[in-house]
Amino acid sequence: MAEKEIALLQGQINKLHDKKFDLDAWKNSTLIYLERIFGKENSKSKMIAELAYDYSSWNLRDTAATGKTSEKDPVIIQAEEIITATIAELKTFGLPKPEYGKDKLLELLKDELTGKNIREIESLLQGNEPDRVSKISEIIEVTEKDKLVTIITKILTD
Predict the structure, then answer these.
(1) Alpha carbon distance 152, 94 (integer Å)
(2) Are residues 34 and 108 in the same domain?
(3) Average pLDDT, stretch 105-130?
(4) Distance CA 105, CA 113 (A)
(5) Residue 12 and residue 44: Cα distance in Å, rounded?
(6) Do 58 and 9 belong to one domain?
(7) What is the number of domains present in the chain?
(8) Same domain for 16 and 76
(9) What pLDDT, in 10s, does the model give residues 85-100?
(10) Domain end residue (candidates: 72, 93, 114)
(11) Does 109 share its domain with 81?
């Protein structure tokens, strides 16, 4: 279960109701937590980053000038709903499984392969050669068995 992550996010909900609430500071810390939990590109972070006050209405201008926020502050309500839904998701589905894309796999390969092999693989990945799959396979096939075991173990245990 994701108890630590849920506790962090619950703390962010509590901060929404502080007398000295600062939306930008709150957004920054919340984004750090969400990116740590869900990765850099996630919809929750995007929604939090887009939260902003609309100072075009007279009511919000008065609120900004006096420093008083009402119980029905739309930005705080929206922020709380996003974090509440995120907590519900973590309670229901648990922590997301790490995804292994090209970047993550290349990083693991860099730890175990030679620089020459990595440059060849990166070059092949960027190109459109029809036989690039077989060429990458050849590079990996000559890699020592223990290095491949290490790579697979890191993938499984990360």
Answers:
(1) 24
(2) no
(3) 85
(4) 12
(5) 14
(6) yes
(7) 2
(8) yes
(9) 999 999 999 998 766 6
(10) 93
(11) no
Cβ(70)–Cβ(63) under 8 Å? yes
The pLDDT value recorded for residue 72 is: 80
Confidence of residue 57 (pLDDT cuts 50, 70, 90): low
Structural domain boundaries enclosing 134: 102-157
**pLDDT for the residue numbered 104:** 75
pLDDT given for residue 158 in this prediction: 66
**How far apart, in whole angstroms, are the C-alpha atoms of residue 128 and residue 121?**
12
Same domain, yes or no, for 106 and 88? Answer: no
pTM listed for this prediction: 0.59
Gap between the Cα atoms of 29 and 85, Å rounded: 18
pLDDT digits (tens, 9 = 90+) for 21-45: 999 999 999 999 999 999 888 899 9
Q: 126-131: long-range contacts (C-beta < 8 A, 24 or more apart)?
A: none
The answer to whether residue 121 scores a pLDDT higher than 90 is: no
Residue 46: closest CA among 62, 34, 54, 36 = 34
pLDDT band at residue 142 using 50, 70 and 90 as cut-offs: confident
For 35, the token pair is: 């990116």
Distance between first and last Cα of the chain: 16
Q: Which two tokens stand for residue 27?
A: 């957004």
SS3 68: coil
67: region left, alpha or beta (phi > 0 left; psi from -120 to 50 alpha): left
